[in-house]
Amino acid sequence: MEVSNRTVYKLVLTGGPCGGKTTGQARLCTFFENMGWKVYRVPETATILLGGGVKFTDLSEKEVFNFQLNLIKTMMSIEDTFFQLAESSPCNCLVICDRGVMDASAYMKQDQWQAMKDEMNWNNVDLRDNRYNQVIHMVSAANGAEDFYGTEDHLVRHEDIGLARKLDNCSSQAWVGHPYFDVIDNSTDFEAKIVRMIASVCHRLGLDTEDRLSVDSKKRKFLVSGLPQCMEDIQFQDFIVVHDYLVTPTGKMQARIRKRGQNVRWDSEKQIWNLDTGKWTYTHTIRRVEAVERKMQISAKEYELLVAERDTSRYTVYKKRRCFIWNNHYFQMDIYQQPCHPRCNNLILLETYTTQKAEELSLPDFLNIIKEVTNDSKYSMYNLSKRDDVKEKEEYLQSDVNNIMSMNRWPISECDKPEF
Fold it and tell me: Looking at the structure, do residues 54 and 144 belong to the same domain, yes or no?
């Protein structure tokens, strides 16, 4: 993402009908151009093609498959043109994609999508995670702001409110699992919704906007006891995540690297994950005291070079990360795994970003949530990774989790075995 002290940031704006994508693009463009960035806006490929007279109801199943395949190829070609322009620009660049590759999968049957990936040798990690730096889903007005849903001012929009809700849900599920996926719902008025969207981009980029964006969205963290026997009614994506903290020149700075993989194989003989398999994304994060956290997507080669700088006073942190959407909120559930400090045994933490107050936030009712630990420093990954064996700290943490089911090995249960 970052090359020669300049940034190229590839953002997808997606969402159901009447969610604010068009307005959001315009406001993002103005905001970043005012900061001196070059902004490119990639047009929506589907609108271009469907505006040429294509009607899905007139197409056979084979024609639909071929149309979607050509749509994705065209989309990738158009995007790549803008990506190349951004890479050659002398200044910081924001590339806003009006929808992305995974949106096409929302309009296909799962067996068709899998057949297409097999035919083209594609995989979700490359199409979803490695291709774009961030994805923002603008929830349709049909889902939470029904009084403001309409189709009159859109040339190709014709969906009734029921279909709009269905399309909104499908498009959001298509992106579940992207490492930087934000859902902007209708819990505020439209102006605040747009501001929250812009703030989300600035937050991911590590830009200090001072008072220009007044939002109170923050990460909330909850301690969870065990896992449900099955989550068949909840669509989710599972990943294996490996964190390492790096040696830093000062105690006022934290640095870590992360590899995040899907399609990782389970070694049934050794009862461990084979980390040499799967498709991975890599991230380098730097956090300074009283400064905004900075995250950079890096290559596998850069990751391997940084591994040599691991802080040996800390454990490598292994987690299984389960990503899902519930009630229009995006959740990540981290299930800590051996090898780790005993303080992490049986530990499950649920996280989400929200503007809602504690009494307003609706949490997944299928999880046994013990308490909120957002401001409890002993549940920060930085502290959880420490190798120190201070007995008082050990007992303090264990008091919260001593009744949690034993989960020292994956899979958790028969229905929770990895099916990637």
Answer: yes
